[in-house]
What does this fold into?
Amino acid sequence: MFEVDWKTPHLWRKTSKTRTASPSLSDALETDVLVVGGGFTGLAAALGARDSGVNVVLLEGNEIGSAASGRNNGLVISHHSKAAPSEFKAILGESHAERLNSLVAGAADVAFGLMQRFGIDAHQVQEGWIQPAHTEVTLARARQFHDEWKAFGAQVSWFDQAEISRRIGSPYLGGWMVHNSGHINPYAMTVGLADAIEREGVRIFENTRATRLEKVARGWKVHGAQGSVAAREVILATNALTDDLWPGLKRTMIPLKVFQAATEPLTPDQRAQILIGNPAVSDMHNDLRYFHYDRDGRLVSGATHVFWHDEEARGRAKVAAMLKNSFKALGGEPRMAEYWAGTFAVVPDLKPHLFRLAPGLVFGGLYSGRGVAAGMALGQEMGRWAAGRRTDAEMPLPVTGMAKVPFHPVAVQVANRVHAWHRVKDRFA
Ligand SMILES: Cc1cc2nc3c(=O)[nH]c(=O)nc-3n(C[C@H](O)[C@H](O)[C@H](O)COP(=O)(O)OP(=O)(O)OC[C@H]3O[C@@H](n4cnc5c(N)ncnc54)[C@H](O)[C@@H]3O)c2cc1C
It folds into this structure.
């Protein structure tokens, strides 16, 4: 529903190596596992299946890295989107909540582990992710997150007001850090992972939109404009860009458009006072503030708009004002040198989903803004599952039918406008 210009190079693409696109599909092929979608979920799913010893084909409708996986902020976070580990027990039951929490707790290590395994230079920094609190209410919530993850066995730390404000270079009341987390250049990771799985034997076809699914005796035949792939198992990893390939699937998610912006490289003096130790940070404002350095010392942040007219100028101005308010050491509003936008998928229960759409046809994803680490971790599990190495019962999430978002058209409008209300709430808080 949202048009995003994916062809104009943005910060992450400008600072990554160029990838020569794989060919588009022009034959009738057969394989064991077919993956549709070349973001983190699809690439990791293809790898998980290939590592399990089966033949794998991946179709990407545009180019690898053109969607959320290549355009996001780059925060690699082993923590749920807004929820505490205990809160999934009521939704999922004890055993699945435990498995989902394990997946999320280890997701950042999976992501950084893939970079290490394949020698991918994604400008990775695994110096932790900090979530600071700015009110008494958010402080209590941050303390809950910290205490629950600590009890779960995750490596986390608590910082008091003085320590957190010193580390971030901005006044906060306290907060917690997840040590295995960090930040990357997500485009470099996406194309690096695509190259790696091709070397492992996965056949990738780009600029090949899957347009039709046909049930055949041995599984499914997936049609593109000029070719087809017959496969025993098909994984749809199309996330926020899900189209009408499978009826009703796009009503299981709410696409949310957000923008990113980056400063010019900060001076050494500024860097000595801001984000000490090079952590990734996202705070607990309703109108979320998040930041980390890129490889060259730019501050990379972002936000969203209620209305998208004049989006670029307004986006740059909004982030510049937020950074000025957050970091005294900037000495005023920084010039925002880079701007780009992207779309991700949110769901009301804030947890990823695994849908069995039909025998041999599954969909997985929906990370509500936390899909960098979780997408790679869940994707690999989905690939192993499709290759027969995991049963439904062993998966980190229950395998369900499609869970459609109630009142979908209204929910999409509300989710993309609620931001105005968030700002009001922040002002009163
Ligand atoms: C601006 C922005 C900032 C974000 N920041 C963060 C962050 O800092 N940390 C974090 O954890 N998460 C963040 N997210 C969310 C995260 O990027 C996503 O959750 C994650 O990348 C989803 O990965 P995916 O592979 O499931 O989907 P995608 O990366 O969206 O990939 C889906 C792919 O499927 C393809 N596709 C769709 N339909 C078809 C079809 N019919 N045929 C063939 N191909 C098809 C699309 O072209 C696309 O390439 C952010 C998202 C955005 C947009």
